[in-house]
């Protein structure tokens, strides 16, 4: 385990060396597109939830305080929120997860930090744990949340609403379309 002082040291050293504050490492398995509200919203962004205001939320990721974390992005305004295991926050720059002809994404029911096959990881936390994308229904919406398997719950904190730790939730998993990968296999000439 890292001590709190070690974590702070890590963040400070990186801030000085790179001008950014993180020790988290991005996962590069999936297609993530750097974006902000000035950019066009990608066609194949992955839908994740609905906030209490009725806006669709798409799956994003951000870097915050030595961790890579899942984010909730509104297409209309670019309003982006996320949470750690404790705090709720907002971001102005983010990456959006996008699907393509061969790779699509699904939400599957899960619980208690079970490691689902092909679960989408956004990257690692300051504790060097993989961080996964979950979602759950609470507080008048469906919220994309942060899943650390060791914490055995989907952690959701949105704006001023209370912190939620939900043990039955959905996990985002990757699905590879084999037919698209081998388009000529089934062709009859
Ligand atoms: C689709 O996305 C996957 C995952 O990022 C990538 O490996 C693959 O090359 C992409 N396929 C196409 C057709 O762009």
UniProtKB/TrEMBL annotation:
<dbReference type="Pfam" id="PF11901">
    <property type="entry name" value="DM9"/>
</dbReference>
<feature type="signal peptide">
    <location>
        <begin position="1"/>
        <end position="23"/>
    </location>
</feature>
<dbReference type="InterPro" id="IPR006616">
    <property type="entry name" value="DM9_repeat"/>
</dbReference>
<protein>
    <submittedName>
        <fullName>Uncharacterized protein</fullName>
    </submittedName>
</protein>
<keyword id="KW-0732">Signal</keyword>
């Amino acid at each position: 385990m890292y001590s709190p002082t070690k974590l702070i040291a890590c963040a400070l050293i990186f801030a000085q060396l790179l001008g950014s504050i993180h020790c988290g490492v991005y996962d590069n398995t999936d297609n993530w597109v750097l974006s902000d509200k000035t950019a066009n919203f990608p066609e194949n962004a992955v839908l994740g939830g609905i906030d209490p205001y009725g806006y669709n939320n798409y799956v994003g990721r951000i870097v915050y305080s030595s961790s890579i974390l899942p984010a909730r992005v509104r297409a209309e305004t670019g309003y982006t929120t996320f949470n750690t295991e404790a705090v709720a926050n907002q971001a102005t720059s983010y990456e959006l997860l996008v699907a393509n002809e061969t790779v699509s994404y699904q939400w599957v029911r899960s619980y208690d930090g079970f490691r689902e096959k092909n679960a989408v990881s956004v990257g690692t936390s300051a504790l060097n744990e993989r961080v996964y994308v979950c979602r759950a229904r609470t507080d008048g919406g469906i919220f994309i949340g942060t899943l650390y398997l060791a914490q055995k719950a989907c952690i959701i904190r949105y704006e001023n609403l209370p912190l939620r730790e939900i043990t039955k939730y959905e996990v985002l998993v990757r699905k590879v379309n084999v037919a698209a990968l081998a388009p000529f296999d089934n062709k009859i000439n």
